[in-house]
Amino acid sequence: MSERQNAFTIKTNRLSDEVYNKLAKYAKSRKLGDYISSLILRDLDGSFTKRKAIKDKKTYEMLEHIKNELADLKTLAKTTDFVGNDSFKEEEPSSKVPQLKEGKIADLENISGSLDDDDLEEYNDF
Hints:
Blueprint: H1 17-28, H2 32-79, H3 117-122
């Protein structure tokens, strides 16, 4: 890349009088550089906006494709009697299995049991 220059020369024969006068006006007020910079930044922002719009369009198209595939799968599931198949329903709890309920706080008044010396040897590293 070449060194950055403080001045540019524009050579063209395609400027209309209206465009030339507008550029001359900015040049006389020493705002031509700022004006050109703002135009270029606007163009760059516009190209970013266009790229984003293209990306958003692709995302939308992919989403629509997924929706269509899902609809096809639902239709296929209905035609093959997959939907409504009882094997995929959540099983209800059997009445034979006792249901756990909240318990009581243990009554610690009547404690029974004992400890042997063997039991104490297992826990002597405390």
